Amino acid sequence: MTSAENASGTQIRPSVPRTALADRVEWPTIAISVGVYGLFGVLTWFHAVLPWWLLVLAGGYIVALHGSLQHEVVHGHPTPKPWVNEALVFPSLWLWLPFRIYRDSHLQHHRAAVLTDPADDPESFYVDSETWARLPGIARAALVAHNTLLGRLVIGPPLAVVRFLIGEAGNQHWTRDRAIAWLLHMGGVGLVVTWTWGVCGIPLAEYLLVFVYPGVALTLLRSFAEHDAHPDPTRRTTVVEAEAPLALAFLNNNLHVVHHRYPHLPWYRLPDVYRLDRRTFLAAGGTVYDGYFRLAVRYLVIPRRSPRFPAVAI
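and the corresponding structure tokens:
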């Protein structure tokens, strides 16, 4: 692991015009969507004859890849027609997060003036000092554990789901659009449950344990190192130079500083743009990690930062 230079005011040199990408169908992304649903169908149809460990690995991978596909759709891919793009991710393989609510939250994350600040960034994993002071000791311990990689993988999925549902239950700003988002989501959930339970005979509890839990955990592995509440606001977006299977599962979103600089770029363009001027991208971001294995070695049981914002080292 090496730290990038302080890059206040640094300009990224590669130029990638939006207009060149806005009016065409991105066939590699279409191919990914076909592969996701095809492999999902095979795994669920033959679940009874497949070893459990293969189902956990492959099922979690497919669910995480579907989440990455949703991320592509949020940013306007893979066709010029939003309704077609949304239809591609209509089945909710991980069951818990309405796509349109995720879309609005993620776009707000990209507009955040101060990344990782819980007052401004809806995807922050940190809590403000006042909230921290009110939390009981067991809650603080859980949040500290959640900032280790092992904690993020083990307690992260249920924590993410529970926090989201509690937030929705207490939401004082329900609108017609939010209600529609939930109705569409329930349709997508119904489609998946009808197939997995009604057709393939997978009990709901087994599907949650074998497909959803590892899929959400793998997604949280990606987001574990996307941002860092670094004291220098110019160094809060990171890069993980991921191993090939994980880079595909994340659709290259591990090259996060490139994605934040060019959010309109499709996933398959990110590596080439990154390689074109790697040094400049790293200087304009935060930390570069040499793969998720190295990240795990360093932070498996050691928190990256305190969960209190502004974060301090532990």
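(Above: one complete record from the training split.) Residues 1-14 have pLDDT under 50 and may be disordered.
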